[in-house]
Amino acid sequence: MQTGMYSTAEVTNNFSDSGAKKANRRALDLWLLGGLAGAYISIAGIVSQVIGHDIAKFLGVGVTRLIMGSVFTLGLALVVLAGAELFTGNCLIVISVLDKRISWGKLLRNWTIVWLANALGSALVVALTVGSGIGSMNGGAVGEFAAAIAAGKLALPFATVFFKAILANWLVCLAVWVASAAKDVAGKVIGMYLPIMGFVAVNLEHSIANMFAVPFGLAQTGNLNLQTLTQFFLRNLVPATLGNIVGGAILVGFLHWYLFSPSRQIAKQ
Description:
The chain has helices at residues 8-23, 27-52, 56-59, 61-82, 94-98, 104-132, 137-154, 158-181, 185-201, 207-220, 226-260, 262-268.
């Protein structure tokens, strides 16, 4: 009997297949698809900021975070449905390694290229957003809101970013997982909504989302330069990336492979 979703074992097997394909894609394709994913997440970031920048004074912080998280679902929806390559979601390629479909070297190649391509796509949207003057909306309130977000992220200790990043990609990869279990577009969007809304609502640290949020916020204060970008890389992007790997590759990828992979179940027999 057909159902509207794949079983957990089927999803695990599908990720093993798709991860092997992703890891063997030619570099140019990874650069282009990674650039698109970085742009999609960044577009969701600016839309979320524009919509959420002044809600708190009317409805409170909690409702603001709920609405911003709901809007940010746009980013992952575009990535998943348009077939782009997002570093944080690609942490699930570890399933293909564990199934011995690809090598660790192939995994690291994919992660490296896609992470860098995500950064380029994010930088493009930062440039377009700054050039468009979106920060000046509502008398400059959007820009002030963006600057406060960037300052808050840069003020966090290394360990705090790391732990918040673990939680962030635990939720993001679960969103990808649940979306992959659905067989229709509506099911995929609904499936990814709650985890993405949750990670944004709790204000967690997603390395690729931060590639837009921090540079855009710094640009609003005229303080976007090599020194501040270096600080951003060392104090935020490094711990966020490491934490995202733990949350996605271990807490979702490894655990689901260990519990549900058909190939592992056969090996146990």
